[in-house]
Every structure is written in structure tokens, then in C-alpha cells.
Protein 1
Amino acid sequence: MDIRDLYLRGLKFRQLLEEELESYDTYDLPLRRRLWLWRHGFLSRSEYVYDLTDDRYRYYLTDFERFVRTPLINGEWNVALTNKLLFHWLMGRFEAHRMGVSGMVRDGRYLPLDSDGSPRGTRDEPPAVATEGLGANGAELSLRGRKTTDAAQRVLERLQSDGRLVLKWIKGGGGENVYLCSQTDDGIRVNGEPKTTAEFESLVEGLHEYLVCEFVEQSEFSSSVYPGTTNTLRVVTMYDETEAEAFVPIAILRVGTDRSGSMDNFSQGGLSAPIDVETGEMGKAVQLRTPTDLVRHAEHPSTGAQIEGVEIPEWPTIRDRLLGIAEENRQLPYVGWDLVLTDDAGGFKIIEGNSYPGMKSLQSHRPLLEDERVREFYRRHGVVRR
């Protein structure tokens, strides 16, 4: 293990401790039970998500193993997943499954990107917007009689043209630092909240290294479960070096609810429905209704749509296409892919890749280490030692 790996482990261990300290008062647990959890590598929150009995806890990937050890699996290639623009470039060979990125906002400036996500110069291009009041560096523009930045104006015009777009921090994860923007007859909304034009411009002006992304329209099936959010598949792939192939150890459908706001995040009250990786049939969805209250739903609690027993349309096609992409990127042996289904014929777009996917929404259904092939993968990469 080199200095970089030691530093990363130390950083992740500190983050693990900080998360436990920040949530300490949320969980009313006897000290003896907390000590038992810590000794076995779990945060207090896991008591309410996993079945941590004396004969079951060994089958769960622990919080320590996930936070501290799994970030090292992809080694130097981690940057391709933690930096969303690099990930976009990496997916260039798979255009049919790649989300569009039109530009990047950096401290008030708009940096345009070509359709393939590569930078392009603008010196010889006619301006796409009015240039009254243009400063020497191109950063200041006049919009309706007041000064604004070129980023604010360009993003606003993009929003008005497309109707919807996503502003996503180049490094964020877990649904944080993401703004879902829409232009309707009633005005602008950001993450469901109304904004005036001036408020939206001010928001954009304050962003640094945010990508301006296509809003991917979800399929009829995904919308039928719950139309209030873009519902995503989280599919984990692992590359088996012994068999020289990628495989899917676990997959879920994440669905928003009236509690989760504009996102489908499990930690915010969204649903996680397990998917049979062979057939695509879903089981009962789980919901963390409060930090200590895990409930199961055969139907969506807001729409009444059936979940348990329903199959993801064309799941084998989706799975096999994604496995092909994973095998083309075998330098990344461990990825948590986030997909939006775009039609009911196996179409999807990849909106993100995660280097050490969270475990709550996955292992709330079953412990990963019950599968010996998964256990062996983690052993080979130094994550588990049992």
C-alpha cells in the first residue's frame, strides 16, 4: 500500500467517524450495543437497516469496509468516477447510453462543450447571446437592464430552450449538489421550489465547476410507478478476473415518494425495490420512513402502483448491455451504475457511475456476502478478510 492509499484510507476513516458523531443523538441505543456495532465495523444507523444478529452480521459488508476499503478497489482509475466530466468522456464510446452535457459553469463563466463533451473554443464563433455590456474577459453581460454573468445568461437561455436541465457538481455524489431545473408557464422551479429569474441567475452565478446536463426523460414504466421524480436503477457490476467477465451481484429500482421531494434518494425517504438479476422481477420495496423506521411496501405508498412481482421491461437486455459496457471498462472492476430507463424496449441512459456505492439501499434487502462470488471479489481486492 502506497502513501496515496494510506492517505485515502485515513481520510475515509475520518469521514466515517464524523458521520457517526453527527448522527449520534439520532439513535437511542444502549452504549453496550453501540460498542458491539463499532467493534464489528458498523455505524449506529445500520442497527435499523440490517439484520445484525450474532449469526447474520458476518454476511454484511460493514460500514468500515465500505467507507475505508472499497474506495481503493479501482485504484488510480477512481478519478474517472469521482469526476463527472471525465466519466462523461469515458462513456464516449457508448453514445446511445450517455447523458448529454452542454457546458460547465465556473465562477460565473460558461465553458461550452461539444456534443461529445469535449471543450471547444469560442473565439471565432458568433455569440449565442446579446453582448451589451460585455467585459474584456467576456464575463459580464447585460440582461434586462442589469449586469449578470455569461454563465447565468447562457444557462437561462438553455433552460428556456430545453424546458428542463440538470446542474450537477462535477464531484458530488449521493444526490447532493444537484439542481433539477424546469421552465414552466408558472416560471422557474429548482428542485421543485419556485424561483424568480433573478434568483435563478444568482444561483448560477454562485456555482463553481457545475455541469449543465440534459434532463433525461424517463420511460412510461418508470413514470407509472411514481411520476414526481426521475426514478433510477442502481446496478452494481464487479469484474471477475478468474472468469474474465463482469457480473451483476445486486440491482435495485430507486423510486421517489411524497416524502423524498424532487429526488429518489433512499436516505431522504425514497423507495428501494430489489430486482432479481436473472428475471428482472421486483420484490417488496423498502423505505426508511424515519432514520429508525424501515418499512416494506408491495405497492407504492403514494400512487398505489404495484411493485412486488412486477418485472422491469426488457431487463435481460438492459443487464447484458450494461455488462458489455462494464467489460469494455474492466480497468474499473467495481462500479455502481445509475441508469434512467428511457423506453420500455431496453433503452437507458447512464447518468452516473459510483466508485464505492452506498450499501443501505442495497443490503436492506439481503447481505451481499451471502454470495460466495461476491465475497471472493471483495477478498481479492483486500476489502474483507473473512
Protein 2
Amino acid sequence: MKKNNGKILTSLFSLAVGATLLTGCGGGDAGGEGGDVQLELFSNKSENMETYEGLIAEFEEQNPTIDIELNAPPEAETVLKSRLTKNDMPDLMAIGGNATYGDLAEAGIFKDFSGSDYLEQIQPAYIDMINKLVGEETEGTYGIPYATNANTVIYNKDKLEELGLEVPKTWDEFVNALEEAKAAGEIPVQFTLKDAWTGMISWNSVAANIQPDNFAAKKSAGEASFQEHYSEVADKMLTLVEYGHDDNFGVGYSDGNTAFGNGEGVFYFQGNWAIPEIKKANPDINLGVFPMPVTNNPEENKLVSGVDVLFAMSTETEHEEEARKFIEFLLEQEKAKQYIDEQAAFSAVKGVLQEDPVMEGIKQNFEEGTITSFPDHYYPAGMQAANLIQAFLIEKNKDEFLKKLDNEWDKVENR
């Protein structure tokens, strides 16, 4: 899946056209108010801003000559691509381990951390995961995995108990649980498909456990296709969407978190990051999580986990020493533990464990290594898979949908 660097940059530039007005304020200026150096930390997530703000305040207290400006704009990846066209990259970026990261790293935007002491503190599986995003022909590690996530089925423990059901271990058991919930007058699944990206939670869980190994590489080499290998994935997505509510495509992520927190739904397809948001609506809700049981062989069902936050540094930063100092601070076990506790996340830092009892249902997956990565992280960045899947779930035309996925993949790669 190696791509020419010039071609990558051209593609990223074209994606940024029309987004320039969204660009966040620039960073990396010396002489910030209250300190000698102003360092910009650019984040692609808004949910973790309070956690970063607390960590930044502590760091600045210890390092009074360094001011850190946190920038977490809406549509962060679009903003980042726009800033690339203006040669205005942030000093330090906290972004996801996905195709955008892979493209930017392969294009030479990020510093290479190969051989650094930082990487010795990180679980190797997550280093391998982000290295695969960059392409086989590009050597190096251009990010430091920090926080990891999990695609889960979040469930209301009290409601499941009231229905007399156990946590399902197979696909048939799961569909039966959905039927039982529906028959009891409950909302089986709280869908939030107004926001297209939320459909990727169930899509990734299903696809990761069904698609052939190395699908993305084989697809790019012309050895696999969605039409040939994703028919069962599409069928199971159509099954799941039948167990939603009356307005699957009219409810967004934020409203869905509140609704589920208020008891509207037995199951909720979301990542671990949604748990703090649900608890804001109802701190007393009794939640659990489990991996979606996609097949009828429990031993084949894996938890989808990926790098939710990695730290990357611009090759153009004028403040490398300060940026490295902040990274070292964040990698301290106490700070890494603070992050995952506040964000209900998991850590890529060795020895930092998530002990929240809500996560008990996926603890075994981490202990045994029954984990697989997000399929869409290996799709071409400009493919807009979430929008295509959202449209498919509305229109329900499987053959046209799978054909379009193949065509859009090829179109992006051939730009």
C-alpha cells in the first residue's frame, strides 16, 4: 500500500480545499504571554479537553518558562490538512492512529521516534499497529501511542437482568437478546446514525471479525474486494439496524449518550470513550461492556482496539526540546493512569492498567490478546466510508453499496 509522497501531499492538499476558513489559530510562537516559549498541542478530540487542561496546568507549574496552548477544533482532521497547505503545522499533535496519521507520516510531516526511549515504554502491539498505517516501504515510527480504545457493546446491566438475559457470546445469542428486548417493549439498540461516524462502531466490530486477513493490502493489490468479501458484513449491519428506535437517523451522538443514560435502550454500540458522556446524564447508571459477538464461535470473536491518541511532532517545530519534555511528562505512569481513569480509556504505556469495573467484560481480551485492529483505519483517508455506510443503512441496497465501496477505494488510490 505504498504511495508516492508527492501524491500523498497532493491528495491531502486537495482534501483541504474549502476548509481553509476552518483553520485554527497557529502555534509554536516564541514569547507567549506568561512564558518564554508557547507550544501548541493540537488535539483531534474535544471529549478529553478537561483532562489535557489539568495535565497542562500541572506541567506549566513545573515548567514556568513553557506555555502550552491546547487547540481542539471541530472537524480537526480537516483543519489539520488545511494547515498543512499553509505550512502551519502545530508543534505537537495528539491524534488518532488512522489513515490520516499514516498519510501524514509517510509524507514526512512527522519526526521519526525510532530508537527513542519513549518507545521502550509502549506496548509493542500498538507500535506495530501504527507502523502498518505508514506503509511497508517507509521505515520508522512517527508517533508515540498513548491511549487506546475499544469498540464495545455498552449495555444497561439492570435492563439485561430484568429481561432475564446473560451477556451473549455468539451472534445467534445476540440477535435473540435483541428480539427479547424488542418483545418486552424496550429499545434494543440506541442508534445515533444522524452522525455518520457512529455507524463505524458496529461496522468495524463486524468487519474486523469477518474480513480476510490483510484485506486492505490485498484490496490495493487487486486481490480482494468488498463485493467478494463483505457480503456477510453488509447483511449483519442490516440485521442490527432493524433493532433500533423510531428515529435511528435523526438522533446524534450527544443526544444518544443522554438518551441511553436516561434508560432509553438496552444496548449501545459505542467505544469506551462514550462512557463518561453517558454518566454525565446519569452518574448512577449501571453499565457494562462486551465485545460484539460477530460469529457463532466464541473463540473467533475478537475485541476491536486501536490507538485512540498518539503523539506526533512536526518536523518544522522550533520547540523540539520543550515538546519532548511535555511528552516525557505525559508518559509518566501517574499521568498516563490519570488520563485513562478520567477518559475511561486504556493505556499503551506498559504497566498502566484500566481498573474500572465497568470494563470487566473486556478485561480478558486485553489479558489474552484476543484483540484486532479497526478495519477502517486502513481504508484510504478520502474514501468517506462513514457516509457511504450511513447511506447504505438508509437505502439498504447491498449490491450497489459494495460496488460503490470498491469504486470509491479505487478512485482515491488512483488520484
Protein 3
Amino acid sequence: MNFYTWNVNGFRAVLKKGFMDWLEVADPDVLSLQEIRSEWEEIDLGVRRQLESAYEISWFPARSKKGYSGAATLSKKELGFTHAQGLGIEAFDQEGRVLQSAMGDLVFIGGYFPNASTGLVRLDYKRSFARHLADHVQALHAKGKKVILTGDMNVAPEAIDLARPKDNRMNPGFTDEEREDFRLYLAAGLHDVLRERNPETPGLYTWWTQRGDARTKNIGWRIDHFLVSEELLNRIEQVEIHSDVMGSDHCPVSLTLA
């Protein structure tokens, strides 16, 4: 089973950059999208019908501001996933942050995690989000569920996860507080599989600024992650960053589960 995550930086925009061709080739079983920035009804009718023919779709745009944030999960119909939107906390749900999908004892959580923003004006909001989500994961584990948590988490956990850690010390995405909160997910029983399997490999980035030809030079950040329950570790065949896929300032990341 192939799981994918991708911050598309605007779904209508990525449709113009080959998204449907990519989808046909990648053929994800479950796909988490972030920053969709659109209502479902705003998507071209032909595209909607094509997607609906193959996938169960949970589309979760922000209610607080049109064209802002938002996430979606697509799962192949034959898999039988059921989808739920939000954490039940209005401050987060109004921004279309998180969706949860379940199949048996497997729970897939995908979403667009808050950005601390310039001047760290949303750091407290982001920290609250992280605490609530980590508690939710811990509660799922207590019920015997196996969890896959993914999405644009807007944090580089360690210095190896960005090209210029010294220059970005205490900038959004690399503050001590955000890195500490990332470890809450690990304390809740999740594993950062890609880093565990590549502990000393630099250059594994998933986002690049659109300035200064950063992507060509691979001056980037690893902020899009797959975290999984320990019980799933021996079933993971591969975790891969698809940096060759264009269309967004992020690239897709995939996890293959036996």
C-alpha cells in the first residue's frame, strides 16, 4: 500500500502543472494534500469526476479565510477507509488543518500543520496544536490503533534537516520550541522513519524557497514527514522523497507499507 503526502501550494495551481499526470504515474493508494486553498466546488468538474471515480475524497478547506490553508485526503475506494475532519477544536478546524482516515486498526492522519510565521507570531498557536495532536496520537495508541502521521509539519527536527541551520537558528520552522514539540510525537510512540533509516545523510529536503535558485542548488528543508507507530516499522518497505516532481515549492514524499 502506497501512502503519499504533498503540499501542493494551491490545488488549482498544481492542476495546471501536471498534477493529474503525476497522479496517474504515482498511483497512490492514500494521498494527503496540504495547502489546497480551494473549495471542492471550485475545482474543474472534469477533474472532480475523474478523481471521484477512483477515490473517496475528504476535502477540508479553511473556513476562516477563503483561499487559505486547507487539507485533503484521497483514498482508493476499494480500500474502504472512512474519513473524518478535524480534531474537534474549532481554533484548528476552522483552518482545515487535519483529517483522520481509518481502516480497521490502522489510522492515517494527514494535514497541514501551522507555520510559526514571521516574527513567531503564531508560535503559541502552533505549540497548542502540537500538544493536542500528540495527545490524540497517544490516545489512539492506548486503544490499540496503529498510526501513520504525515503532512507538511513546518519543522526541521534536527540541524541535518536543513541546508543552513546556523543562518536559520530560531527562525520559523527551526526554533527550539518547534523542535521540542516535534519530539512530542515521538514521545507519543511514533518514529521518524526516513531519518532513522538515514541517520547521517544530508540533503534530504522536501521544501525549497522560490528565491535564489534554491531548489536547483538543493538549499532546502525537510519539513514534510512520515511518522509511524512502532508496530508498523517492520512492514515499511520504503520511505522516499520525490524531489524530481515539480509543480510546488514542496515535493511529494511516499511511504510503502507491506
Protein 4
Amino acid sequence: MLTRKRHSQTRDDSLSTTYGNRFFTKDLKTFRMGEESLPPASVYQIIHDELELDGNPSLNLASFVTTWMEPEAECLIRENLRKNLVDQNEYPRTGEIQHRVIHMLADLFHAPEDGDIAGTSTIGSSEAILLGLLAHKKRWQNRRRKAGKSTDRPNLVVGGEVHVVWDKFARYFDVEMRTVPLSPRRFTLDVDEAIRRVDENTIAVGAVVGTTFTGQIDPVEELNEAIEKRNKEQGWDVPIHVDGASGGMILPFLEPGRKWDFRLSAVRSINVSGHKFGLVYPGVGWLLFRNRADLPDDLVFRVNYLGAEEETYTLNFSSNAAFVIGQYYNLLRLGKKGYRSVMENCRTNARFFAGKLSAHGRFEPVDEKPALPIVAFRLRGKHAGRENEIASELRKYGWIVPAYTLPPDAEKTTLLRVVVRENVSRQMLDDLLGHLDRSLEVLENPPARKKAHPPLC
């Protein structure tokens, strides 16, 4: 008698198309590891398709972070993803490249030619700020101990416009945060108010070149003059740390005459984000000190368990070398002329957008001619305060434009922000203006709500 062979419980997917195998119908474990292994092609496709639900990086105008690099740069990044930057005994040329970039940036920021420059790469500007302020705290402690004075109550003076990482530093490292509030008409640091908060326990004063909230620039030169006067009067040595995360790679090319960097005597450290207008994918940042003496030696660790004695001053020991190499590629490839061209395009497009908003009548840009390619704006007239609804409407077209409130004492101000990066074209901004118009129409003429059907008897 003929018997029918039972169908195997294990199906062979080797001849199936990508979406024809059984793994696309299984409830995969996503919060616990599954017992069985899965084919690499299937896992790739499942994750790839899920990530399609993310926003489009090119339409993410909220982000300062680079979303495009040249193919040659991407090739170098792929080739070096396996390299650990800290292992400079094993990868000496990578260490040399980091050293070169630090000196290139020091030259760009006018570090003294006769100085002994110090610096390091970081995961981003947040780590760089933490490290820079930690060095200033340690220098303050060392000076106080040498003078036989207490080191109990260090403080840090900043404006209300600083990034949240400054608050993190104060909380993580037990430093009093003395914040100069903003005002409804002023969104940058008030120098006079900052100086009033400075005393012998101040480890540093912070200044921002390109704030996250509005893209504006703190009056660093004015602050430097006031700090130097106070230091001379009191015999103090209060330094300035400049947060150049957003503007540090723009101003040297667009406004080379503006003094915000090491040309100012009280500026002792600067951080910059390579992955913002440094034009590198995340994450890479840079911290530079005016002089090696500004980095206390007892913060630098020397280890030899990688094969040779190496110095390290980072919060994270291991880090990827690929994005440091990507930064080196850009500095070599573009040069000052190339960076200047990119930044001019970005700012020209930003000013075009701000001008159109101003002429529109319903929108009010914070600056009609922004110094940096960052346009912060708000609604005028009867729709003022409905910026969150505009942001929500724009998401329907794929745009990611953040709506947010400002810090105290400007917390009643709500803004929208567009960061005009390298790949944000004039045509894209024209399209965005059209979608802003349509979003306003929705606010003025909300779609009629459907009447609820009566319940069935």
C-alpha cells in the first residue's frame, strides 16, 4: 500500500526568494535572544525594512549632524571601521593622522605659534566639553591648594543658551552652575550679568559660537575683555571655554576677522564637532587647549597594556578610528577654499530662506541675515504659539522641523528651527516654504470632523 510522506516540519528556504522564506512570518524575539540562528540575508532584510520607518536624514532639518559624505570618504571609513583609535602602537599612522588634525585645527583657531598645543579627538562635542571643563576644574583646584585655599565650592558661569551637556558637567562633577537667564528679546549671553556671577571659585566662563536654540553667537570678544579686566583687578585666572560645536568650523571660513578663538587671551580651550559643519558622519568631536599647561598632567593617563606606553585623555577608552580619518580626508580634500565654498552655499541658502519667511508676513525669523546657516523662526499674528502644530503638519510631508521653547527667562517663546546643511538645496527650501503655506492653511481651515454614526440598535 502506498503511503504519503509526511511534510517535514523544517522547511528548506534555500530556493525561496527573499520574502518567500518562513522568517518573514515568524514572531521574532526582539527583546530577548532567540535560541536558533537565522540566515544573514533574512536578518539583514528584516532590519533594513524596519529602519525604513525612520525619518529621511536628508529631510531632517532639526539635526546639525552631517548626512552626506563623498564616496571616497565613505570608502575610507568602511576600510577603517575595524581600527581602535586608542591602539596607536598597533595603528601608528592612525595616531599620526589624529595628531595632524589637532594641529590643523589649532592653526585654524589661531593657537599661538610658539605654544605647545594639546588636544584630543572625542566621540562628539559633549565629551569634549566635559573633558575641557574637567581640566579647568582641576587647574582651579591645583591653584587653590598651592595657595592654601579651600577647593570646596567650584562654580561655572554660563548663559541660559548653553547645551544640556554643560548642566550634565555641573551635576556629574559637583560644580555649581551659575546661569545667566535669557530674556524675551535677548537669546545670547549678557556679559555684564555673567561678570557679576564670577568670583574666586569660578573654574571657567562658557561662551557659545552657534547656539542650539537660535544659531546665534555669544559676544566672545566682549566677554574676553571683561574677564581679563576682572582677572587683572582681582589676581584671578578665570578662563573662557568656547563651545564651537556648531560654528567653530564655519566662522574661520566665512568671518575670518571675527575674534572668538585663541586670538583672545582668556580663551584657553575650544571644542568643535567634526560631525556637524566639519562635514563628517557621527561621531567625532575635537577638544583643543591653548597650551599644554592648560591640561593638568594628573588628568592624563599613561598605559602600556596595548604594547607600548601611550597617553590618553578621554572619557571613553576605545573609539573608532574611521571618523577621525574621515575628518582628515575632508581637511585635505576641501582645504580652506573648499570649506569656504560649502559654508557660503549653506549660509546663502539660509539667508534666502530667512528672507522669504520675513517677507511672508506670517513668520518671523530671529535673524533675517543669520551669521550661521541656522534659521530659527516663529509664527506671527493670530497663529503665534502654534509652532508645534506646524511641526506636526510638516511631518506629513516628510520634513523634520523641531518646535521647542527657549530657556528661562524666555520660556514663553516657542521657535521652529531649520539647519541648512550642505545637502539642503535651494529647491528643497522652496518646497519647504510651499509646505509651510499648506500647513498654515490647515491651521486656518481645519478639516471637518466626521460625524459619529448613531449606535446600531
